Fold each of these.
Amino acid sequence: MTSKLVPSDPSKVMVIRQLTPNITTCSAPFLRFGRLKIGGRGTIVRLQSGALAVFSPTALTPEVRSTVEKMGNNVGYIAALDFEHHIFIGEWAKAFPAAKLLGVDGLPEKREKSRETAGNKFHYVWTQKNKNDMKIDPEFDREFDYEYVGSHTNKELVFCHKPDRTLIEADMMFNLPAHEQFSRTGDDPTSGVLTKLFVRLQNTAGAATWQKRFVWYVASSGDRKAFNQSVAKIASWDFDRIIPCHGDVIETGGKGVFQKVFEWHLNAHK
């Protein structure tokens, strides 16, 4: 199934880009359900201690491995940002066995059910019960705010790298089309009937009405009160840039975009 989602030779199409002296992204094509062009993105953050934190890792290509080495090669944390973004966790854990794995409620059990993903120990697993008491390490906690949105259908982990005022998230919010992630493929990131429809549903342009509706009626429908609380907490953080897993990076003005997309939830929380 993985072969239908990710490119067979990611080295040829991945875009590795340094956003700040501390943050590098690895962007590649990704097809949801084997059809929707939503792209995929991993983010590597170098902490002040020199340790690297990797969020939603993409394929560990030779180019990515070289990037990690240039950033110090000290991978200390590998995070699966939700119940779905874990495909390459095992590959990275094998390459960096000293790294601590971060995940969400139910993900370790899900991975153990498949021979392809079994065998990795998660050191930190967020649940609705422990989310307010969760602490990682002093070096990590000094630089990151984080919130577990277990009320989201995909059980989202959202991080904010405080020194670079950068929000890092997976499926909490999309910013389609995925121009950067398909830029080396020669493919139009908006081509295909289903992709065109999904781009309309998951973009941040204008009033972002369709994405607002999707988040309100689908993503948060299980426990909207808890979702509203999480959104309000995230909105209280100081960030300007948003790095989504799907779609283009919002380089600046991200706080306003976040408030726009989650406007209904923020208003409901008041």
Amino acid sequence: MTTWTNDELTRIEHAEELQLAPARSDGTPRTPVPIWVVRDGDDLYVRSFRGSAGAWYRAARASHEGRIRCGGVDKDVTLIKVTDAGVNDRIDAAYRTKYGRYGARYIDPMVASRDTTLKLAPR
């Protein structure tokens, strides 16, 4: 299994957002969308601001694959659904810490959409 390098983790962690292109059913990438990303330990996570209704999220859940571009990192990823409450609690805190300056208007929907948390695993 491939893992993130320390350099990749740092670059992505410090970026404001990443571009995620979920794969279509034929494996070709969809149009990339900007998404907030947070780090927890040696793992990276994203959530859908629009919850499960988000088009990119529906595509990501169908294919479980995508491509990211962020901070000079361009990589194929596997998108893994996160259901662990403890991990989600840490991701909530990470969103509040990293993006809290945007206020409740943006943070509250990200925390409320914890059922859309996806771990980005490099391929």
Amino acid sequence: MQRMTALFSAAFLALGLAATQAQAQQNSATDTKQSQATAPTQDFSDQQLQQFADAAQEIAVISQEYTQQLQAAEGKQAQQQVRMEANDKMVKAVENSGLEVDTFNAIGQAIQQDPELMQRVQEMAKSSTASGDQNS
């Protein structure tokens, strides 16, 4: 499943990430507001950026799966249930990468404001996906 994300390495930053951030921010609105205020000035380690890239790839796949389910859901309650389930999976993907949701969101906001940082994360995503494909 992660191998498919090679095609999304550029797209997940532009599209999937924005939706993911919005959903994750709904869960931790207070903490997220604090991280939003400091996001542009934070320096992130290469390890954090790699964890972000790995989590974002997983999130892109989750987002794609749940977008289809969301479109098929009938009624607001069913749609809300799909959103909550997707959000839970996305949060777990972030936590499994070793990052906290707030850090993930802060990196996401920072890369939206810094094209060089976005390029670094995209390269990390491509490298980790290419390594995974070659090892299989």
